[in-house]
Write a structure and sequence with these properties.
874 residues; six-stranded antiparallel sheet; seven-stranded mixed sheet; 30 strands
């Protein structure tokens, strides 16, 4: 055999193998080049789509800003009996000053014009009113002939005032009888928009442009002056628009310069405008063609090298054949070794899985055994606090309840950490309101911050979508942990700030950045390195002084990872810390309409007085988002001076003033304002981080109109403005609220409840809550068999079922109820089992809902109210 292989047949075989290798490499190169080209085209599509989104957002922002300006100007206009247009008690000089003031807020605009019913210019932001008539313009005729016309955007036109290309955005002016009296228009210079387009890099031969509904060229970079304003009814976008398509991609050779490009287009909102971004094929394939050249050269070179290697391989192949005999001798030995090692690995894996299962079962059992007495402790303490007590007794019981809650928090942290380690923590994916999460965080953190004299502020960027899809509970858990640490480690200082910013959006997903900043003790670089590790804090002395398990940050970082984000920290000893993290959420399908002030309070002049620069920044962002243009000052003295200066011109309607400021505080400043004859009295709202009954009394004592508690939201501001200016006799924020539980107690009064519970203490706690507080009728069963007996004898509205009971468990009792007694009586699991699979196990057994011990009475009441009268399974 060896003698034959040393002859011609082996050489031919090696030659064939070399040829096939070269051919295979050539095919792989070709496939690689093809795949590279496809990837480049996909990348170009993403880039053009991203640029078109930016162009749409820019155009939409300009149009909406102009529209707001037009509506603002309309709000200042007055049409007389003879259809003369003017300002109330104002001269023409004042009129032009108003228009120039509005024009200064919009760099893209060249002029604002007021045109009468005959098309003549009446007023202008220009130094002199041009003697121009626009009655022949299409947009003027549309306003004149159509009473329902809203905002109209004209085709691109050569301006009659300055000879440049521009478009006109206009709205109709009507008199008191609803008759056409003229228009107010804003001229946008297209070269200003083109300057923005010039900043967009689309490659050497790429282009960005804007067209109107009839595909007239409005803006293009690089510019094509000859094509400006020309109608292109056969344009690809026009054909797609006729099919109802508002955005998309296509490729074509440009009729203007013959260059083939990939285009991405989008309609600007619902306006008759379209923006396009294009990248030339020659640009994005230039490097690809270079790769084709080099790869082709490489194939030729490899073919030559392969021929040489074939000759070398012939000799090596002969040596290899002779070595095969010795290799076979080792093969049997290796197979035996692998078989033995495989058995050892299988045994080790089974042992590891058994250890993991034992750990999970131990944690579940320990959780159940701890939660059962904890339910009794917390429940009995809550019941005792509802009785008549001396102040000392109430103090003792309040501290005991707080300590029990802290212990329960530690248990929950340990369970969360264990679930994360075992990979069994499941994240929800549901729609929620971001404001609801932040309000929940505020309700827990603000009182703790107030106790230490710290302001707690929330700053949410205006471009953040308030409706998201994700896990609101876990997001709140992270924020509560970070904010609690900020308050814990800050003994004095200014603020604890939560900021929310949008850092990315793509394909229905958004990435948000959250940060929590404090002015506390800070950390060194060595201490930062110890963070995010389980059961550890910055150092042992910190643990002794401030307490804590050291699990919070480790759990938070793992939760952030499950939200496809990252967590980090910036800190300096003695100057505070900032913890930040990103998280990815879905964007809710339906857009939420922005709340805007009612027309009668839309143009309030507002003065904000606050010594905190951060608080002023937040106030300014909130008020601007509501359409206001506030004046902000840093002290009460500056505020008094500002009020006196404005008294003779345009006085302020509303004053938002911080309470605690250096020098003169808010209440002293309010007293001086109320007593000052030189000030036109504004409505005064006190803003404080220390809202309580004493503040309410001082607000009434000083004759103020209301107060707001930080952190302040846009909704609370708008509600306060509406209350103040809608009912001047009632302070806006002084509203007493009753016990929150009354809303849930009333619906379950008289409800017949069967309580399945074998623990006597938990029986007493649940019985007294339901009977004494909620007014329900409760029957107790000590095991599952007794539950079946009582259900056969009596009628109940709902069953509260413990899962672990003697004689017959709650799971078995539920299955028997569904099979033998009733398929639709609501059964609620009330159990100390709190692992991630326990809820699913309860639902699989036939139960309708689930609540874990220790339970919050309000949660139990609300759940019973929701299920009262339900006679169906969910």
């Amino acid at each position: 055999m060896i003698n034959r292989l040393r002859g011609v047949p082996v050489f031919r075989l090696v030659m064939l193998a070399g040829a096939l290798s070269a051919l295979g490499f050539s095919i792989l190169i070709s496939l690689s080049l093809y795949d590279d080209r496809q990837n480049r085209e996909r990348q170009v599509l993403r880039e053009t789509e991203n640029v078109s989104i930016i162009l749409e957002q820019h155009a939409l922002a300009v149009v909406e800003k102009v529209d707001l300006m037009l509506q603002d100007v309309l709000g200042h206009l007055k049409v007389g009996p003879g259809q003369e247009i003017g300002l109330a008690s104002s001269s023409a000089r004042r009129f032009s000053g108003l228009l120039r003031e509005k024009l200064a807020t919009l760099p893209e605009a060249s002029a604002i014009q007021i045109v009468d019913a005959n098309g003549n210019f009446l007023h202008s932001s220009l130094a002199t009113v041009p003697g121009i008539n626009v009655s022949d313009r299409d947009y003027f005729q549309m306003h004149r002939d159509n009473s329902a016309s809203g905002l109209i955007i004209s085709p691109p036109l050569v301006s009659r005032t300055n000879g440049t290309w521009s478009i006109s955005l206009s709205r109709r002016i009507i008199d008191e009888a609803g008759r056409f009296a003229g228009i107010v228009s804003v001229a946008l210079r297209l070269d200003q928009i083109e300057a923005f387009y010039a900043s967009v890099n689309m490659g050497a031969r790429g282009t960005v442009l804007m067209r109107d509904a009839e595909m007239r060229l409005m803006v293009r970079h690089p510019r094509l002056e000859a094509n400006m304003g020309q109608v292109m009814l056969n344009h690809p976008v026009a054909r797609l628009r006729a099919q109802g398509v508002k955005k998309g991609v296509y490729d074509q050779y440009s009729p203007a310069d013959g260059v083939k490009r990939i285009y991405s287009f989008r309609q600007v909102g619902d306006y008759p405008l379209y923006v396009l971004a294009a990248i030339a094929e020659d640009d994005y394939l230039a490097e690809w063609w270079r790769n084709v050249y080099w790869y082709g050269s490489a194939v030729v070179l490899i073919a030559l090298v392969s021929l040489f290697l074939v000759l070398v391989a012939r000799a090596a192949l002969l040596r290899q054949i002779e070595a095969e005999a010795s290799l076979k001798a080792h093969q049997a030995q290796l197979e035996q070794l692998v078989s033995r090692r495989t058995g050892e690995l299988q045994l080790a894996r089974e042992q590891a899985e058994a250890a993991t299962l034992a750990k999970s079962e131990f944690l579940a059992n320990m959780s159940h055994e701890i939660r059962t007495p904890m339910n009794g402790i917390i429940g009995m303490t809550d019941l005792a606090l509802r009785t008549e007590l001396s102040p000392q007794q109430r103090n003792y019981l309040g501290k005991a309840k707080g300590a029990a809650g802290a212990l329960l928090g530690i248990i929950n942290d340990i369970l969360d950490f264990s679930k994360i380690e075992a990979g069994k923590l499941k994240m929800e994916w549901i729609e929620f309101q971001l404001e609801d999460v932040l309000e929940h965080v505020t309700s827990l953190i603000a009182p703790k911050a107030q106790e230490k004299g710290l302001e707690f502020l929330i700053n949410t960027a205006g471009d953040v979508d308030r409706r998201l899809v994700g896990d609101p509970f876990r997001l709140g858990q992270i924020l509560i942990n970070l904010c609690s640490n900020a308050v814990k480690f800050t003994s004095s200082g200014e603020i604890v700030v939560v900021t929310v910013k949008l850092v990315g959006a793509d394909a229905g997903m958004v990435k948000l950045l959250f940060s929590v900043r404090d002015t506390g003790i800070g950390m060194s670089e060595e201490q930062i390195a110890l963070l995010f590790q389980p059961f550890s804090q910055a150092d042992a002395s910190v643990t002794r002084k401030y307490g804590g398990t050291g699990l919070g940050l480790a759990i938070s970082k793992q939760l952030v990872h499950l939200m496809h984000g990252e967590m980090g920290v910036r800190s300096e000893e003695g100057k505070g810390s900032e913890f930040y993290f990103t998280a990815v959420f879905g964007s809710a399908c339906a857009a939420v309409a922005a709340r805007l002030p009612a027309p009668d309070i839309r143009y309030l002049r507002i003065l904000v007085i606050d010594d905190s620069a951060t608080a002023r920044e937040i106030f300014e962002a909130l008020l601007v988002s509501l359409g206001y243009h506030p004046r902000l000052v840093a002290s009460a003295e500056e505020g008094l001076a500002e009020l006196q200066r404005s008294a003779d011109s345009t006085p302020f309607d509303l004053l938002l003033m911080d309470w605690r400021m250096p020098g003169m505080d808010g209440f002293e400043a309010a007293r001086r304002i109320r007593q000052s004859p030189d000030v036109v009295q504004p409505r005064i709202v006190m803003v404080t981080a220390y809202g309580n009954e004493a503040v309410q009394q001082r607000v009434l004592q000083y004759g103020l109109d209301g107060y707001l508690t930080k952190p302040v939201s846009a909704s609370s501001l708008l509600d306060t403005f509406t209350n103040i200016f809608g009912n001047a006799s009632t302070p806006a924020s002084i509203v007493e609220t009753g016990d929150e539980s009354t809303g849930w107690v009333s619906p379950i009064r008289g409800m017949r409840i069967l309580l399945a519970e074998d623990n006597e203490i938990n029986q007493q706690v649940t019985l007294e809550l339901l009977v004494e507080i909620a007014g329900a009728e409760v029957v107790i069963a000590g095991d599952g068999l007794e539950v079946l007996t009582k259900l056969r004898a009596e009628s109940f509205d709902v069953v509260l079922m413990d899962c672990q009971m003697p004689v017959m468990s709650g799971y078995e009792a539920t299955r028997r109820i569904r099979e033998e007694i009733s398929a639709d009586i609501p059964i609620i699991a009330i159990t100390a089992n709190a692992m991630s699979t326990d809820r699913e196990k309860c639902l699989a057994a036939g139960m309708n809902d689930y609540i874990s011990k220790p339970f919050d009475p309000e949660v139990l009441f609300s759940m019973l109210a929701r299920w009262r009268g339900s006679r169906h399974r969910t």
